[in-house]
Design a protein that fits this description.
Distance between the termini of chain A: 69 Å
Strand order of the largest sheet of chain A: 6-5-4-3-2-1-15-14-11-10-9-8-7
CATH architecture of chain B: Beta Barrel
Strand content of chain A: 35-45%
Number of strands of chain B: 21
Largest sheet of chain A: 13 strands, antiparallel
CATH topology of chain A: outer membrane lipoprotein receptor (LolB), chain A
Number of helices of chain A: 4
Structural class of chain A: alpha+beta
Shape of chain B: globular
Oligomer: heterodimer
Number of domains of chain A: 1
Number of domains of chain B: 1
Shape of chain A: globular
CATH superfamily of chain B: Porin
CATH class of chain B: Mainly Beta
CATH class of chain A: Mainly Beta
Order of helices and strands of chain B: HEEEEEEEEEEEEEEEEEEEEE
Structural class of chain B: mainly beta
Distance between the termini of chain B: 42 Å
């Protein structure tokens, strides 16, 4: 009885909306839709100001042996350009106080400095090649650095359900293909909040290299979604790395003076 | 008699070696209850020399223990205190057995400036193998032949970030004398340098007030630093003293003015580096410069390892070539970083004097074991030391150092 009344309604709705949907998909190529998704992601994440996080990185080799690194990350949002970030290591103890300062840019090379506390020395380091491992982990500099829209081109592939989330699946292609470790990344984002659920990384020969899964999302300041866990599995080496985030503090009042070469020296 | 006293000396050395770190650690752990952060490292070191000593008094090999704890406390207003003593106990019990306060400073960061008061360390420079312009801290040359280790320097250090760049001003109220190896130590000069006979141009001697002003800035892909220093030269002239039977060298410290420049530039996979200085007041005014590059091959042979090729050239226009080891030298080297969980890294360099036959080869390697232990190995070789070259007394001191470092 109920069915008979609802079903025609649904059908009617479907008929009303289908020309509209048809028009949207006509107007929007997969590339445009891919870009539209990432622009919405950026719009939702704007205005975070600055962010301080504490992270534990657990590296596992093929035999399951673990090693840990504890890192504090600070990020300063820059309008009109890439963000500034500062990572300071607490463990392992021999690299305690070692700090990495990065100014990412929307176009051109990022700027990067490494601070070595034993020598009190700030060294400029090359940042063009992003495919290298970040402190021996399965995350590369590319994976860990702030990602700017301009660094990739995008293509929407399909809708797909993943672990109970209705997701869009898009592909990202690096603009600076020569210095990226990937030919493409396949990214699953949930449709509710545009959060990354999973990423498949394909190496330069286009075979599956790594898979990243993001878990334990929480919303901060009523707006910003951040994952509590990131699991990176390297399918080719059998090694994996887990990032566990214990704190996210937004709007802590950081300024440019907390992200210069002098601040590296007192970073702890 | 001789034997017993020697044994006594050694057993006392062993006792001190064992007891000092334990007492220190015991005291420090109790401080941590008051929110004081404790870190640092203990190092066991063995040095093996490939050849017999050149001079009769020198010991053949040596072993030592280094303790370098660090106490840190930060206050709610952002200011902080740091204390970092250093002690080395060496089996030869000569000048290499020494202690220092590497740091004992208070940092106060205000909104648009930062003040540091106390003993601290400041590094200026860009190149890998040669450090020309670095001047604030005195070199602890009993610690390290290459001059990388520094003594703590008392200072008042004001940092004022500008819209364009950063200005730093230094007032240095106390001069630290350079350390030199003793008679029994390897890698020493001949005759030995007697630091008890140090002379100063200034009547104020060690309490001469030194100043430095530095401007540094980042121009997109280049970092530039320019400074002027006015005060006691960190590098002494060595004069011959003593008598005919016991000649010694003694350090003579001049009042100098030194302008220095350091540049680092990133260009793709290249890093370009340069340092230059101009010094007045220590004999004829002179200039010295070093320029170099590092080119990196990333992910070599599809591994995660990076290989950096390093080339440097240093020139010093002082006529007397005995004043400095590096005066007209070319250096070629590499850095291999495996980018593995153990942080394995190797750095090697071959230094060749352009005019003399002298070669110097150094290689160092590091690898972490577990969360707290690290193995550090260092080798230094001298070949064909020329008569006129400052490295001549070290000719038979080619050596291998193995360090087991424990970090806490």
């Amino acid at each position: 009885m109920k069915f008979s009344t609802i079903l025609p309604g649904v059908l009617l709705l479907g008929i009303c909306f289908s020309p509209l949907c048809w028009q949207i998909s006509l107007a929007e190529t997969p590339e445009e839709k891919g870009l539209a998704i990432i622009m919405e992601v950026e719009r939702r994440d704007q205005g975070f100001g600055d962010l301080v996080t504490d992270m534990v990185m657990i590296l596992r080799n093929r035999n399951g042996q673990e090693s840990r690194r504890e890192v504090t990350n600070k990020v300063l949002e820059k309008k009109g350009d890439g963000d500034k970030s500062l990572s300071v290591f607490h463990t392992p103890r021999d690299i305690r106080g070692t700090a990495l300062l990065t100014f990412s840019h929307k176009s051109g090379d990022d700027e990067q400095w490494l601070y070595l506390p034993a020598l009190k020395r700030v060294k400029r380091i090359n940042s063009r090649n992003k495919s290298g491992s970040f402190v021996g982990s399965e995350f590369s500099y590319e994976d860990i650095s702030s990602q700017e829209i301009e660094e990739y081109t995008y293509k929407y592939l399909r809708d797909e359900e993943l672990d109970g989330h209705a997701c869009t699946v898009s592909e990202y292609y690096p603009v600076d293909a020569e210095n990226s470790g990937y030919s493409r990344q396949m990214v699953w984002r949930d449709k509710d909040e545009y959060r990354i659920q999973k990423v498949d990384f394909y190496d330069r020969k286009n075979s599956l290299l790594k898979t990243l899964t993001m878990k334990g999302y929480k919303q901060y300041e009523g707006k910003y979604w951040r994952a509590g866990e990131m699991h990176m599995m390297n399918h080719q080496s059998g090694k994996s790395t887990v990032l566990l985030y214990s704190t996210y503090r937004f709007h802590t009042g950081l300024t440019d003076n907390d992200f210069n070469k002098n601040s590296l020296k007192r970073a702890r | 008699m001789q034997i017993t006293s020697r044994r006594k000396k050694y057993s006392r050395f062993a006792l001190i070696t064992a007891a000092t770190p334990l007492v220190f650690l015991f005291l420090l752990f109790h401080l941590s209850a008051f929110g004081v952060e404790l870190a640092g490292n203990i190092v066991l070191e063995g040095r093996y020399f490939a050849e017999e000593p050149q001079y009769p008094a020198q010991q053949e090999h040596n072993a030592s223990v280094v303790l370098e704890p660090e106490l840190y406390h930060s206050f709610t207003d952002g200011s902080s205190v740091l204390l970092k003593p250093f002690v080395r106990l060496d089996s030869n019990a000569d000048e290499r057995t020494h202690w220092d306060i590497r740091e004992a400073s208070f940092i106060y960061p205000a909104e648009d400036w930062e003040l540091q008061i106390g003993i601290s360390k400041v590094f200026w420079g860009a190149t890998e193998f040669v450090h020309l312009v670095d001047i604030i801290n005195q070199t602890d040359s009993v610690e390290d032949f290459t001059g990388e280790e520094k003594l703590g320097q008392p200072m008042l250090h004001l940092t004022v970030p500008q819209k364009q760049g950063m200005i730093e001003a230094f007032v240095l109220p106390w001069f630290r004398e350079r350390t030199f190896p003793g008679e029994k130590d390897r890698l020493r000069s001949d005759p030995i340098i007697d630091t008890n006979l140090s002379q100063y141009e200034s009547a104020a001697e060690q309490s001469h007030l030194d100043f430095a002003l530095r401007y540094s800035h980042t121009f997109s892909n280049a970092d530039l630093g320019l400074y002027h220093f006015n005060g006691t030269s960190r590098e002494p002239n060595l004069l011959l003293g003593g008598d005919m039977r016991h000649p010694v060298l003694f350090p003579s410290y001049h009042q100098i003015g030194q302008t220095g420049l350091d540049v680092q530039m990133a260009a793709g996979d290249w890093l370009l580096k340069g340092e230059a200085l101009y010094r007045t007041g220590q004999g004829r005014s002179f200039a010295a410069a070093v320029c170099g590059f590092e080119y990196t091959f990333y992910g070599i042979y599809e591994s995660g390892a990076d290989l950096g090729i390093i080339g440097e050239y240093v020139f010093d226009d002082r006529a007397d070539k005995s004043l400095t080891v590096v005066n007209n030298d070319v250096i070629g080297g590499f850095r291999l970083a495996l980018n593995d969980a153990a942080g394995t890294e190797i750095l090697a360099g071959l230094m060749k004097d352009v005019e003399f036959s002298t070669y110097m080869f150094s290689v160092e390697a590091d690898r972490r074991f577990g969360e707290h232990l690290k193995l550090h190995m260092e080798a230094l070789f001298f070949f064909d030391a020329a008569e006129q070259d400052a490295v001549l007394p070290f000719e038979q001191d080619s050596q291998l150092t193995v360090e087991l470092q424990y970090f806490f």
